[in-house]
Amino acid sequence: MVTKLLLAATAMAICRLMVTVGLPLAPAELLRLGVDGNISVDASDMEAAAVDFGGTSRAEPLAVLHPASTEDVVKLVKAANGKGFTVSARGHGHSINGQAQAENGVVIEMSVRRREAEKRTSPPRPRVNERERYVDVWGGELWIEVLRAALEYGLAPKSWTDYLYLSVGGTLSNAGISGQAFNHGPQITNVHQLDVVTGRGELMTCSDKENQELFHAVLGGLGQFGIITRARIALEPAPHRVRWIRALYSNFSEFTEDQEYLISLHGEAASKKFDYVEGFVIVEEGLINNWRSSFFFSPRGHPLNISSLAPDGGVLYCLEIAKNYLQSSADTVDQEIEALMKKLNFIAGSIFSTDLSYVDFLDRVHKAELKLRSKGLWDVPHPWLNLFVPKSRIADFDRVVFKGILGNKSSGPILIYPMNRKKFDDQMSLVTPEEDIFYLVALLRSALKGGDELPTLAYLNNQNSQILEFCYGAHINIKHYLPHYGTRHEWMDHFGEKWIQFHKMKMEYDPQHVLATGQRIFPPLFRDGQVSSS
Ligand SMILES: Cc1cc2nc3c(=O)[nH]c(=O)nc-3n(C[C@H](O)[C@H](O)[C@H](O)COP(=O)(O)OP(=O)(O)OC[C@H]3O[C@@H](n4cnc5c(N)ncnc54)[C@H](O)[C@@H]3O)c2cc1C
Ligand SMILES: *[C@@H]1O[C@H](CO)[C@@H](O)[C@H](O)[C@H]1NC(C)=O
Ligand SMILES: *[C@@H]1O[C@H](CO)[C@@H](O)[C@H](O)[C@H]1NC(C)=O
Ligand SMILES: *[C@@H]1O[C@H](CO)[C@@H](O)[C@H](O)[C@H]1NC(C)=O
Ligand SMILES: *[C@@H]1O[C@H](CO)[C@@H](O)[C@H](O)[C@H]1NC(C)=O
Question: Of 186, 207, 237, which marks where a domain is finished?
Fold first, then answer.
């Protein structure tokens, strides 16, 4: 009886697809999987899965799965192994180079639009354990929803990304870094446990104590070993408010010395350090360069005069720091901040400060997104380049890249801030430079689409190549964050000593190279359901 119903439902689904969509059918096997969610070849689903935030790469999938449960993911990955197609989890599609795409495979749309999903079968909602201070979340949950769920209990995650419309599974497959990483470590070191559907289609729970090799491989593992369907994320009591401060420097070595001083305070009492330390480079003014921050420097309507503040070289550096506090300690926060600021060497009188709720602080980039969207400047090509630069060479990087190659033009925000390597876990797949302190340099630039405000993609790509050539030529041991390479040799170089383990874990957990082929690390072994000869 049940089987008959299922068959009837499947037949109806096929008819619906053929009649209403009229696109070529996905392999018939897919439609017989009987998932709790749905498998779609809808034009809008297919289009969304074919592109990403980078806006420059495209790959057409066979179909898109909207899973309603972990079981759906298991079924699909098992079928992929049996029938010979690839599968990529797609968090929120915020990759730059097609990392979540699946050419001729199935894309699993992991992210959940919570408000729309109320009435449908949908993945499990976040579950907070108040006493033990953690939250269990679906792998496709966006961080903004994790925050909302935790705040209902007065709790919040500890380590963040600057932008919250990213998925938990997507950031944990990379690292998840922001101004808290110096203190709490990246997001991958603030996870207690994961449920992972491996590339073989087996559901495994893993942690520091259970299946720990898999746990470490998956964190920073670029989606190569399994699909994260649940993550247990550490929480802390949520601060109420944030004092958000910026101060300017024209002298790069004074800027970095202060940043490094501030991140050296991580071990001290909470009152004796900042909770967030970042910074950015200012080579020109304008919305596209400072979209993360534009309101800041004109509190009284005075735009920054860069040439008067930075006469030599024309580059300014902005330290960005924040102090969290509880309503009950609002009286003492000013004194604590004053004591900390006294030790710093910013340009006298260049402090800009604002006070806002914790949520508004964490969600700050989304406001900038809305502003850019309203001007048609969000859906443009983003040739972003994220590099970890060892502390010993950051001054060379400044001299040649910020003061040279960029040619006084930024075309987007350029972040620069240091982190403590000891807050990272070397057993995990993420690779960083070997020095105790390394910087994230994030060139978050936008290319021309229609108007004439922005440089062309070719121009920015060429600049990115020049930057990389300089680093390699000068033997600066950078590591790419959110890496993207074309050849096996480059990937081996990237992972260095970790390659052997990375490869071994791939053979163990995804021997048929089913998962996340958009990363271009292990080429698909299947082509059109056949084992490829290459
Ligand atoms: C505006 C913006 C701001 C950003 N800010 C930061 C920041 O402050 N800090 C930072 O660290 N990063 C930041 N990022 C980068 C971000 O971390 C990456 O884009 C990351 O990939 C998360 O995006 P996503 O959830 O959309 O993942 P996707 O791009 O969809 O996926 C990324 C990779 O992970 C895999 N994957 C996705 N979900 C899962 C899962 N559940 N299980 C296993 N593998 C999975 C995919 O197959 C793909 O290979 C930012 C990106 C943008 C666009
Ligand atoms: C499939 O699921 C997605 C997301 O849950 C939803 O938007 C879509 O309407 C569903 N399609 C069908 C045919 O049920
Ligand atoms: C920058 O500051 C350092 C340390 O105070 C100093 O030695 C150096 O001369 C300064 N550089 C410039 C260009 O002023
Ligand atoms: C900026 O400063 C420079 C140098 O001090 C000065 O010549 C210029 O007029 C100033 N520009 C504005 C807009 O105030
Ligand atoms: C950038 O501007 C500064 C001062 O305005 C100038 O000295 C410098 O040569 C310029 N750099 C480049 C690469 O054009």
Answer: 237
